[in-house]
Amino acid sequence: MPKAETSPVESVDRALLLLLLMRERGPVSVKTAAEHLAVAPSTAHRLLSALAFRGFVSQDRERRYRLGPALMDRSMEPFSISRLREYARGPLLELHSRLGETVQLMVLRGGNIQFIDGVESESSLRVGMRIGDQMPAFVSAGGKAILAQLSNAELEELYRNGLPAWPTSRITTMAMLKRSMTKVRRAEFGTNFEETEQGVSGVGVSIGDVTGRPVAAVTVATPSIRFRRVDMAVHVAALRQAAASIEERIAQASR
Prior knowledge:
With 255 residues, the protein is of the alpha+beta class.
C-alpha cells in the first residue's frame, strides 16, 4: 500500500493547517486547535504563540486566536474608510433620528481614534462633530469599546511607549487601562463621562468584521448637563442596533 502523504516539516504543516482552520471557521480556541490537529493543548499553544509572535494570528477578548494583521491584504478590505462611511451612513441617520443627539463613527489609528463621519444634533445645546480629529482611544466611549475587543498583549503592544497624556483622562497607566477594559468587556459598551472634554458624556459600541476583528465604533455624545444615567439602556440598545446594521453591510460586502 502507498504511504500516506506527509509534510516534510511537520510543525510548519501544523501551523499552516491552523491558519486554514481560522480562515474557514474564524476565531478558534487552543482546545479547538489541539483537537483539529490531534495534538496536546500545549503543542497547539506553542504553535499559536509562534504565529502570534510574527503577527500571523492575534487573540480576541475571549483569548481565542484569529487571523492577524500580517495576513490582511489592505487592498482587498471591503471596509476602507470611504466604504465604511457608505455602510454606516444609513444606520447613523437612523440612530440620530432615534436619539436626537450627535452620533459619530470612528476608527482606530494606532493608539488613537479618528472621527470619520457623524450626524450632529439639531439642539441649540449640542456636542459638535469632530470629523478628522484624533484623540487617545482610551478617553473616548467608542475608543474604549474598540480597545476592549483586544487582548492585554495587544494593548501592551499598542501602547508600548506608554499612554499619551490627555488633559481630562482618568486612565494614566497600563494597569488602569487593563482594569478599565475588563469592565468594558463585561458591559459590552464603553462610556465617557467628561474624559474627552469637560461638558461631554458619551456611550459607544464597537463594530466588527466577519472574523470578529474590531474595525470601528459608533457613539452618541450628549452635553453632560442633559445626560441622564437612566437613559443609558436606551442609548446602548440603539447603538447596538446601529452597529449590527453596519456589521451586516460589511458581511454582505465580504461575501
